[in-house]
Please model this.
Amino acid sequence: GAVCELVIGYLVDRTRTKFGKVKPWVGFGVIPLAVVSLLVFVAPNVSSQTMAIVWMFIVYSLYTAVSCAVESPSNCFGSLCSPNPSERSTAISIASFLRSVGQSGGMVVVLVVGLIMKALMGEQQFKNAEGQGLDLVISTAVCAVGLILFTMIFFANNKERVPFTQEKVSIKDSLKVVFGNKNLLMVSLTKLTGCGRGVYGTVSLYIAIYLLGSKDLKLALLLPMGIGTAVGTLLVNFVLKKFSTKQTFIMFCIYGATSLAILYIVSSTIGFNKTLIIPFLIINFFCGLQHGNTNTTPNIMIADCVDEIEYKTGKRQDGIAYAGYGLFSKVASALTKGFGPWLLYTWSQYAVSQDPNVAYAAQSDFTLNRMLMIYTIIPAVFVVLQAVPIFFYDNVGKKKEMITAALAERRAKANSDTEETA
Model:
Protein backbone atom coordinates (compact mmCIF):
# COMPACT_ATOMS: atom_id res chain seq x y z
CA GLY A 1 0.00 0.00 0.00
CA ALA A 2 2.79 2.42 0.88
CA VAL A 3 4.56 1.72 -2.43
CA CYS A 4 1.29 2.05 -4.37
CA GLU A 5 0.68 5.49 -2.83
CA LEU A 6 3.91 6.88 -4.29
CA VAL A 7 3.45 5.20 -7.68
CA ILE A 8 -0.15 6.40 -8.05
CA GLY A 9 0.70 9.89 -6.80
CA TYR A 10 3.52 10.18 -9.34
CA LEU A 11 1.26 8.98 -12.17
CA VAL A 12 -1.58 11.34 -11.18
CA ASP A 13 0.77 14.32 -11.52
CA ARG A 14 1.72 13.14 -15.02
CA THR A 15 -1.91 12.64 -16.13
CA ARG A 16 -3.16 15.11 -18.74
CA THR A 17 -6.72 14.64 -20.05
CA LYS A 18 -9.72 16.77 -20.98
CA PHE A 19 -11.31 15.62 -17.69
CA GLY A 20 -8.32 16.78 -15.67
CA LYS A 21 -5.72 14.69 -13.85
CA VAL A 22 -7.79 13.24 -11.01
CA LYS A 23 -11.25 12.48 -12.42
CA PRO A 24 -10.12 9.74 -14.85
CA TRP A 25 -8.56 7.75 -12.01
CA VAL A 26 -11.68 7.95 -9.87
CA GLY A 27 -14.24 7.50 -12.67
CA PHE A 28 -12.56 4.63 -14.49
CA GLY A 29 -11.18 2.92 -11.40
CA VAL A 30 -14.42 2.56 -9.46
CA ILE A 31 -15.80 -0.53 -11.24
CA PRO A 32 -12.57 -2.57 -10.84
CA LEU A 33 -12.56 -1.49 -7.18
CA ALA A 34 -16.15 -2.69 -6.71
CA VAL A 35 -15.35 -6.08 -8.29
CA VAL A 36 -12.16 -6.62 -6.26
CA SER A 37 -13.97 -5.58 -3.06
CA LEU A 38 -16.40 -8.45 -3.63
CA LEU A 39 -13.54 -10.90 -4.21
CA VAL A 40 -12.12 -10.06 -0.78
CA PHE A 41 -15.12 -11.83 0.78
CA VAL A 42 -15.16 -14.79 -1.59
CA ALA A 43 -13.26 -17.82 -0.29
CA PRO A 44 -11.92 -20.32 -2.85
CA ASN A 45 -13.32 -23.84 -2.57
CA VAL A 46 -9.96 -25.62 -2.25
CA SER A 47 -8.67 -28.28 0.12
CA SER A 48 -5.13 -26.88 0.21
CA GLN A 49 -4.48 -24.32 2.94
CA THR A 50 -1.48 -23.06 0.95
CA MET A 51 -3.68 -22.29 -2.06
CA ALA A 52 -6.17 -20.51 0.18
CA ILE A 53 -3.39 -18.36 1.66
CA VAL A 54 -2.02 -17.57 -1.81
CA TRP A 55 -5.52 -16.54 -2.97
CA MET A 56 -5.98 -14.40 0.12
CA PHE A 57 -2.61 -12.68 -0.34
CA ILE A 58 -3.13 -11.98 -4.05
CA VAL A 59 -6.71 -10.71 -3.70
CA TYR A 60 -5.95 -8.49 -0.72
CA SER A 61 -2.83 -7.08 -2.40
CA LEU A 62 -4.91 -6.38 -5.50
CA TYR A 63 -7.60 -4.74 -3.37
CA THR A 64 -4.95 -2.54 -1.71
CA ALA A 65 -3.56 -1.46 -5.08
CA VAL A 66 -6.92 -0.78 -6.76
CA SER A 67 -8.37 1.04 -3.75
CA CYS A 68 -5.23 3.18 -3.64
CA ALA A 69 -5.65 3.98 -7.35
CA VAL A 70 -9.12 5.39 -6.61
CA GLU A 71 -8.87 6.76 -3.08
CA SER A 72 -5.51 8.53 -3.37
CA PRO A 73 -6.54 10.58 -6.45
CA SER A 74 -9.94 11.33 -4.92
CA ASN A 75 -8.17 12.87 -1.92
CA CYS A 76 -6.36 15.22 -4.32
CA PHE A 77 -9.64 16.74 -5.41
CA GLY A 78 -9.68 18.82 -2.25
CA SER A 79 -6.77 20.90 -3.51
CA LEU A 80 -8.14 21.06 -7.08
CA CYS A 81 -11.76 22.00 -6.44
CA SER A 82 -11.02 25.68 -5.78
CA PRO A 83 -8.07 28.09 -5.67
CA ASN A 84 -9.79 29.85 -2.76
CA PRO A 85 -8.59 28.35 0.59
CA SER A 86 -11.87 29.19 2.34
CA GLU A 87 -14.00 27.49 -0.34
CA ARG A 88 -11.55 24.61 -0.40
CA SER A 89 -11.77 24.08 3.36
CA THR A 90 -15.56 24.00 3.24
CA ALA A 91 -15.53 21.52 0.33
CA ILE A 92 -13.06 19.23 2.11
CA SER A 93 -15.12 19.37 5.32
CA ILE A 94 -18.30 18.39 3.46
CA ALA A 95 -16.46 15.61 1.63
CA SER A 96 -15.05 14.32 4.92
CA PHE A 97 -18.53 14.39 6.46
CA LEU A 98 -20.01 12.38 3.59
CA ARG A 99 -17.10 9.93 3.77
CA SER A 100 -17.75 9.42 7.49
CA VAL A 101 -21.43 8.88 6.78
CA GLY A 102 -20.48 6.33 4.13
CA GLN A 103 -18.15 4.48 6.49
CA SER A 104 -20.80 4.32 9.20
CA GLY A 105 -23.34 3.44 6.51
CA GLY A 106 -21.41 0.25 5.83
CA MET A 107 -22.03 -0.86 9.40
CA VAL A 108 -25.73 -0.10 8.98
CA VAL A 109 -25.84 -2.11 5.74
CA VAL A 110 -24.37 -5.16 7.53
CA LEU A 111 -27.02 -4.85 10.28
CA VAL A 112 -29.93 -4.39 7.86
CA VAL A 113 -28.83 -7.21 5.53
CA GLY A 114 -28.49 -9.52 8.55
CA LEU A 115 -31.99 -8.67 9.79
CA ILE A 116 -33.55 -9.19 6.34
CA MET A 117 -31.73 -12.51 5.84
CA LYS A 118 -32.80 -13.72 9.28
CA ALA A 119 -36.44 -12.79 8.57
CA LEU A 120 -36.41 -14.56 5.20
CA MET A 121 -34.34 -17.64 6.09
CA GLY A 122 -35.09 -18.28 9.74
CA GLU A 123 -32.67 -18.36 12.67
CA GLN A 124 -30.83 -21.62 11.91
CA GLN A 125 -30.42 -21.13 8.16
CA PHE A 126 -29.19 -17.60 8.76
CA LYS A 127 -26.54 -18.89 11.18
CA ASN A 128 -25.34 -21.32 8.53
CA ALA A 129 -25.23 -18.56 5.90
CA GLU A 130 -23.48 -16.22 8.35
CA GLY A 131 -20.88 -18.91 9.04
CA GLN A 132 -20.14 -19.02 5.30
CA GLY A 133 -19.85 -15.23 5.14
CA LEU A 134 -22.85 -14.86 2.82
CA ASP A 135 -24.13 -11.84 4.76
CA LEU A 136 -20.80 -10.08 4.19
CA VAL A 137 -20.81 -10.87 0.47
CA ILE A 138 -24.33 -9.43 0.08
CA SER A 139 -23.49 -6.39 2.23
CA THR A 140 -20.35 -5.74 0.20
CA ALA A 141 -22.34 -6.04 -3.03
CA VAL A 142 -24.81 -3.41 -1.77
CA CYS A 143 -21.94 -1.10 -0.78
CA ALA A 144 -20.18 -1.73 -4.12
CA VAL A 145 -23.30 -0.67 -6.07
CA GLY A 146 -23.55 2.43 -3.86
CA LEU A 147 -19.88 3.16 -4.50
CA ILE A 148 -20.40 3.11 -8.27
CA LEU A 149 -23.56 5.25 -8.15
CA PHE A 150 -22.11 7.95 -5.87
CA THR A 151 -18.85 8.04 -7.82
CA MET A 152 -20.73 8.58 -11.06
CA ILE A 153 -22.56 11.50 -9.44
CA PHE A 154 -19.16 12.94 -8.50
CA PHE A 155 -17.77 12.32 -11.97
CA ALA A 156 -20.64 14.12 -13.71
CA ASN A 157 -20.94 17.11 -11.39
CA ASN A 158 -17.40 18.13 -10.39
CA LYS A 159 -14.76 20.14 -12.18
CA GLU A 160 -11.08 20.68 -11.43
CA ARG A 161 -10.94 24.46 -11.08
CA VAL A 162 -7.22 24.76 -10.35
CA PRO A 163 -5.18 24.35 -13.56
CA PHE A 164 -2.36 21.81 -13.54
CA THR A 165 1.10 22.94 -14.59
CA GLN A 166 2.33 21.62 -17.91
CA GLU A 167 5.83 20.54 -16.83
CA LYS A 168 6.13 16.84 -16.09
CA VAL A 169 7.92 16.12 -12.83
CA SER A 170 10.70 13.57 -12.41
CA ILE A 171 10.70 10.83 -9.78
CA LYS A 172 13.55 12.59 -7.99
CA ASP A 173 11.58 15.86 -7.78
CA SER A 174 8.52 13.95 -6.60
CA LEU A 175 10.44 12.38 -3.71
CA LYS A 176 11.78 15.83 -2.81
CA VAL A 177 8.19 16.98 -2.40
CA VAL A 178 7.34 14.10 -0.06
CA PHE A 179 10.40 14.40 2.17
CA GLY A 180 11.77 17.87 1.41
CA ASN A 181 8.87 20.23 2.11
CA LYS A 182 8.90 20.87 5.86
CA ASN A 183 5.21 21.62 6.28
CA LEU A 184 4.05 18.63 4.23
CA LEU A 185 6.45 16.41 6.17
CA MET A 186 5.09 17.66 9.50
CA VAL A 187 1.52 16.87 8.43
CA SER A 188 2.59 13.41 7.28
CA LEU A 189 4.50 12.74 10.51
CA THR A 190 1.28 13.12 12.49
CA LYS A 191 0.35 9.67 11.16
CA LEU A 192 3.53 8.12 12.61
CA THR A 193 3.51 9.92 15.96
CA GLY A 194 -0.18 9.10 16.32
CA CYS A 195 -0.01 5.51 15.02
CA GLY A 196 -1.16 3.97 18.32
CA ARG A 197 -4.42 5.92 18.42
CA GLY A 198 -6.04 3.23 16.26
CA VAL A 199 -5.39 0.32 18.65
CA TYR A 200 -8.90 0.72 20.05
CA GLY A 201 -10.15 -1.15 16.96
CA THR A 202 -8.17 -4.25 17.98
CA VAL A 203 -9.97 -4.51 21.28
CA SER A 204 -13.46 -3.25 20.36
CA LEU A 205 -14.92 -6.77 20.06
CA TYR A 206 -13.55 -7.69 23.50
CA ILE A 207 -14.89 -4.46 25.01
CA ALA A 208 -18.34 -5.43 23.72
CA ILE A 209 -18.07 -8.98 25.10
CA TYR A 210 -16.38 -8.50 28.46
CA LEU A 211 -17.17 -4.93 29.48
CA LEU A 212 -20.64 -4.43 27.99
CA GLY A 213 -21.85 -8.03 28.02
CA SER A 214 -22.50 -9.03 24.38
CA LYS A 215 -20.49 -9.42 21.18
CA ASP A 216 -23.57 -8.18 19.31
CA LEU A 217 -22.81 -4.74 20.75
CA LYS A 218 -19.61 -4.37 18.70
CA LEU A 219 -21.37 -2.55 15.87
CA ALA A 220 -23.47 -0.64 18.38
CA LEU A 221 -20.17 0.33 20.00
CA LEU A 222 -18.57 1.61 16.80
CA LEU A 223 -21.68 3.32 15.39
CA PRO A 224 -21.81 6.19 17.95
CA MET A 225 -18.11 6.83 17.33
CA GLY A 226 -18.78 6.82 13.57
CA ILE A 227 -21.64 9.29 14.01
CA GLY A 228 -19.41 11.40 16.25
CA THR A 229 -16.77 11.39 13.52
CA ALA A 230 -19.28 12.63 10.95
CA VAL A 231 -20.47 15.42 13.27
CA GLY A 232 -16.83 16.25 14.06
CA THR A 233 -16.06 16.93 10.40
CA LEU A 234 -18.78 19.59 10.36
CA LEU A 235 -17.56 21.09 13.65
CA VAL A 236 -14.07 21.41 12.19
CA ASN A 237 -15.44 23.62 9.42
CA PHE A 238 -16.99 26.00 11.99
CA VAL A 239 -13.83 26.08 14.11
CA LEU A 240 -11.69 26.85 11.04
CA LYS A 241 -13.67 30.05 10.48
CA LYS A 242 -12.16 31.44 13.71
CA PHE A 243 -8.87 29.57 14.08
CA SER A 244 -6.04 28.48 11.79
CA THR A 245 -5.59 24.87 10.68
CA LYS A 246 -2.66 24.58 13.08
CA GLN A 247 -4.67 25.80 16.08
CA THR A 248 -7.68 23.68 15.10
CA PHE A 249 -5.64 20.48 14.86
CA ILE A 250 -3.96 21.01 18.23
CA MET A 251 -7.21 21.96 20.00
CA PHE A 252 -9.02 18.87 18.73
CA CYS A 253 -6.11 16.67 19.83
CA ILE A 254 -6.32 18.06 23.36
CA TYR A 255 -10.08 17.56 23.33
CA GLY A 256 -9.73 14.01 21.99
CA ALA A 257 -7.26 12.94 24.66
CA THR A 258 -9.45 14.48 27.37
CA SER A 259 -12.64 12.73 26.15
CA LEU A 260 -10.87 9.35 26.09
CA ALA A 261 -9.55 9.91 29.62
CA ILE A 262 -13.10 10.76 30.78
CA LEU A 263 -14.40 7.54 29.18
CA TYR A 264 -11.80 5.56 31.13
CA ILE A 265 -12.63 7.25 34.45
CA VAL A 266 -16.41 6.86 34.04
CA SER A 267 -16.11 3.20 32.97
CA SER A 268 -13.79 2.35 35.85
CA THR A 269 -16.13 4.06 38.31
CA ILE A 270 -19.33 2.36 37.09
CA GLY A 271 -17.69 -1.05 36.69
CA PHE A 272 -17.93 -3.64 33.93
CA ASN A 273 -21.62 -4.54 33.78
CA LYS A 274 -24.74 -3.75 31.77
CA THR A 275 -25.30 -0.42 33.55
CA LEU A 276 -22.16 0.77 31.75
CA ILE A 277 -23.67 0.36 28.26
CA ILE A 278 -25.59 3.65 27.90
CA PRO A 279 -22.96 6.02 29.37
CA PHE A 280 -20.23 4.18 27.46
CA LEU A 281 -22.00 4.60 24.12
CA ILE A 282 -22.84 8.26 24.81
CA ILE A 283 -19.25 9.16 25.70
CA ASN A 284 -18.10 7.08 22.73
CA PHE A 285 -19.99 9.52 20.52
CA PHE A 286 -18.11 12.46 22.04
CA CYS A 287 -14.81 10.60 21.63
CA GLY A 288 -15.64 10.22 17.95
CA LEU A 289 -15.73 14.00 17.45
CA GLN A 290 -11.92 14.13 17.50
CA HIS A 291 -11.75 11.83 14.44
CA GLY A 292 -13.52 14.55 12.48
CA ASN A 293 -10.36 16.58 12.93
CA THR A 294 -7.92 13.89 11.81
CA ASN A 295 -10.15 13.09 8.81
CA THR A 296 -10.45 16.70 7.69
CA THR A 297 -7.79 19.16 8.88
CA PRO A 298 -4.74 17.31 7.46
CA ASN A 299 -6.39 17.24 4.00
CA ILE A 300 -6.87 21.00 4.18
CA MET A 301 -3.26 21.48 5.33
CA ILE A 302 -1.95 19.31 2.48
CA ALA A 303 -3.88 21.45 -0.04
CA ASP A 304 -2.19 24.50 1.49
CA CYS A 305 1.17 22.71 1.19
CA VAL A 306 0.49 22.04 -2.51
CA ASP A 307 0.02 25.79 -2.94
CA GLU A 308 3.29 26.43 -1.12
CA ILE A 309 5.14 23.92 -3.31
CA GLU A 310 3.69 25.49 -6.47
CA TYR A 311 4.68 28.95 -5.20
CA LYS A 312 8.29 27.81 -4.64
CA THR A 313 8.80 25.53 -7.65
CA GLY A 314 6.23 26.65 -10.23
CA LYS A 315 4.93 23.06 -10.41
CA ARG A 316 1.65 21.85 -8.95
CA GLN A 317 2.04 18.33 -7.52
CA ASP A 318 -1.27 17.43 -5.84
CA GLY A 319 -0.88 13.71 -6.52
CA ILE A 320 2.50 13.18 -4.90
CA ALA A 321 1.71 15.50 -1.97
CA TYR A 322 -1.36 13.48 -0.97
CA ALA A 323 0.51 10.26 -1.79
CA GLY A 324 3.26 11.23 0.66
CA TYR A 325 0.68 11.57 3.41
CA GLY A 326 -0.82 8.26 2.29
CA LEU A 327 2.63 6.63 2.47
CA PHE A 328 3.05 7.62 6.12
CA SER A 329 -0.55 6.60 6.77
CA LYS A 330 0.05 3.08 5.42
CA VAL A 331 3.23 2.66 7.49
CA ALA A 332 1.39 3.88 10.58
CA SER A 333 -1.43 1.43 9.87
CA ALA A 334 1.07 -1.44 9.70
CA LEU A 335 2.56 -0.38 13.05
CA THR A 336 -0.92 -0.19 14.59
CA LYS A 337 -1.81 -3.67 13.34
CA GLY A 338 1.31 -5.05 15.00
CA PHE A 339 1.07 -3.03 18.21
CA GLY A 340 -2.64 -3.65 18.90
CA PRO A 341 -2.49 -7.48 19.07
CA TRP A 342 0.64 -7.31 21.25
CA LEU A 343 -1.17 -5.05 23.69
CA LEU A 344 -4.22 -7.32 23.76
CA TYR A 345 -2.64 -10.77 23.93
CA THR A 346 0.59 -10.02 25.82
CA TRP A 347 0.38 -6.75 27.74
CA SER A 348 -3.19 -7.28 29.00
CA GLN A 349 -2.47 -10.97 29.76
CA TYR A 350 -5.57 -12.08 27.87
CA ALA A 351 -6.56 -15.68 28.69
CA VAL A 352 -7.34 -17.72 25.56
CA SER A 353 -10.16 -20.26 25.95
CA GLN A 354 -8.95 -23.85 26.31
CA ASP A 355 -12.46 -25.26 25.85
CA PRO A 356 -13.39 -25.82 22.17
CA ASN A 357 -17.04 -25.20 23.07
CA VAL A 358 -16.32 -21.83 24.71
CA ALA A 359 -15.21 -19.01 22.42
CA TYR A 360 -14.27 -16.48 25.09
CA ALA A 361 -12.73 -17.47 28.42
CA ALA A 362 -13.37 -15.51 31.61
CA GLN A 363 -10.82 -12.73 32.24
CA SER A 364 -9.35 -11.27 35.41
CA ASP A 365 -10.12 -7.72 36.57
CA PHE A 366 -6.50 -6.88 35.77
CA THR A 367 -7.02 -7.92 32.12
CA LEU A 368 -10.38 -6.16 31.86
CA ASN A 369 -8.86 -2.92 33.14
CA ARG A 370 -6.00 -3.14 30.66
CA MET A 371 -8.47 -3.80 27.83
CA LEU A 372 -10.22 -0.60 28.81
CA MET A 373 -6.86 1.21 28.80
CA ILE A 374 -6.16 -0.11 25.28
CA TYR A 375 -9.48 1.41 24.21
CA THR A 376 -9.00 4.74 26.00
CA ILE A 377 -5.77 5.76 27.75
CA ILE A 378 -3.26 4.38 25.23
CA PRO A 379 -5.04 6.00 22.24
CA ALA A 380 -5.25 9.22 24.30
CA VAL A 381 -1.46 9.29 24.65
CA PHE A 382 -1.01 8.90 20.89
CA VAL A 383 -3.67 11.53 20.17
CA VAL A 384 -1.46 13.99 22.09
CA LEU A 385 1.69 12.75 20.33
CA GLN A 386 0.15 13.27 16.90
CA ALA A 387 -0.15 16.98 17.65
CA VAL A 388 3.61 17.37 18.26
CA PRO A 389 4.73 17.73 14.59
CA ILE A 390 2.05 20.37 13.97
CA PHE A 391 3.81 22.74 16.40
CA PHE A 392 6.48 23.05 13.66
CA TYR A 393 3.94 23.69 10.87
CA ASP A 394 3.91 27.35 9.76
CA ASN A 395 1.82 27.59 6.58
CA VAL A 396 -0.81 29.75 8.27
CA GLY A 397 -1.76 33.38 8.68
CA LYS A 398 0.05 35.99 6.60
CA LYS A 399 2.31 33.43 4.91
CA LYS A 400 -0.69 31.48 3.63
CA GLU A 401 -2.43 34.68 2.50
CA MET A 402 0.71 35.84 0.65
CA ILE A 403 1.04 32.51 -1.20
CA THR A 404 -2.65 32.52 -2.20
CA ALA A 405 -2.40 36.08 -3.54
CA ALA A 406 0.85 35.36 -5.42
CA LEU A 407 -0.59 32.26 -7.10
CA ALA A 408 -3.77 34.13 -8.09
CA GLU A 409 -1.62 36.84 -9.69
CA ARG A 410 0.47 34.26 -11.57
CA ARG A 411 -2.61 32.47 -12.92
CA ALA A 412 -4.23 35.73 -14.00
CA LYS A 413 -1.04 36.69 -15.86
CA ALA A 414 -0.81 33.22 -17.46
CA ASN A 415 -4.42 33.49 -18.67
CA SER A 416 -3.77 36.97 -20.03
CA ASP A 417 -0.68 35.79 -21.92
CA THR A 418 -2.63 32.84 -23.36
CA GLU A 419 -5.42 35.12 -24.60
CA GLU A 420 -2.93 37.50 -26.22
CA THR A 421 -1.20 34.59 -27.96
CA ALA A 422 -4.56 33.30 -29.22
Summary: The two ends are 45 Å apart (CA to CA).
